[in-house]
Amino acid sequence: MSRAVLSLGSNLGDRLGFLRSVMTGLGPAVRAVSTVYETKPWGVEDQPDFLNAVCVVDDPARDHWAWLRAGQALERAAGRVRDLRWGPRTLDVDVVTVDGVTSDDPELLLPHPGTPGRASVLVPWLEIEPDAVLPGHGPVRDLLAALPEADRAGVHPRPDLSLRPDS
Ligand SMILES: Nc1ncnc2c1ncn2[C@@H]1O[C@H](COP(=O)(O)OP(=O)(O)OP(=O)(O)O)[C@@H](O)[C@H]1O
Ligand SMILES: Nc1nc2c(c(=O)[nH]1)N=C(CO)CN2
């Protein structure tokens, strides 16, 4: 097991810097990264807009738990404080899917159960993997098409922001 899709989000502080810290932290394991998107908050709507992106990572030495731990270490490094569910955060790294693994362990649910309903994940994922399939749920393009237009309209590309740390 080695290939994972990670969803990144930030809506506090140096949002772009926190997303970039994931690129720096995961280094050569990052195989593809989406455009950065500015997105309207879901869940708790009275909070600042998020920057979201999705990346594909590959490392034969890491299994799904290792991807979770890597994401949590990056969240800690970004000074993340766990407070309100779905509330504001400096950095959120969600493991969307890892190869075909399914897990119902609450510490690591796979695929991530929020994925089918989140345009902020589906839009950037589809950008880098147009034929992506979410195991157990079907093609990502179909999941996105099934969402209300208002959800898709809340996801705006920010081509002026780059996730390459040296740009
Ligand atoms: N696929 C997954 N990716 C990341 N964390 C997960 C996953 N499945 C379960 N978790 C667990 O979720 C817990 C809470 O995560 P977090 O605080 O990021 O939730 P949230 O971002 O508020 O909500 P959501 O998980 O719906 O995006 C973590 O302790 C983590 O172990
Ligand atoms: N647009 C958007 N909204 C959110 C996000 C996110 O990443 N993007 N993350 C949340 C906490 O998991 C709550 N709400």
From TrEMBL:
Pathway: Cofactor biosynthesis; tetrahydrofolate biosynthesis; 2-amino-4-hydroxy-6-hydroxymethyl-7,8-dihydropteridine diphosphate from 7,8-dihydroneopterin triphosphate: step 4/4. One of its GO terms (molecular function) is 2-amino-4-hydroxy-6-hydroxymethyldihydropteridine diphosphokinase activity. The lineage of its organism: Bacteria, Bacillati, Actinomycetota, Actinomycetes, Pseudonocardiales. The gene is folK. Its EC number is 2.7.6.3. This is 2-amino-4-hydroxy-6-hydroxymethyldihydropteridine diphosphokinase. Pfam families: HPPK. Residues 85-96 form the 7,8-dihydro-6-hydroxymethylpterin-pyrophosphokinase domain. It catalyses: 6-hydroxymethyl-7,8-dihydropterin + ATP = (7,8-dihydropterin-6-yl)methyl diphosphate + AMP + H(+). InterPro entries: Hppk (IPR000550), Hppk_sf (IPR035907). Keywords: ATP-binding, Folate biosynthesis, Kinase, Nucleotide-binding, Transferase. PANTHER family: 2-AMINO-4-HYDROXY-6-HYDROXYMETHYLDIHYDROPTERIDINE PYROPHOSPHOKINASE.
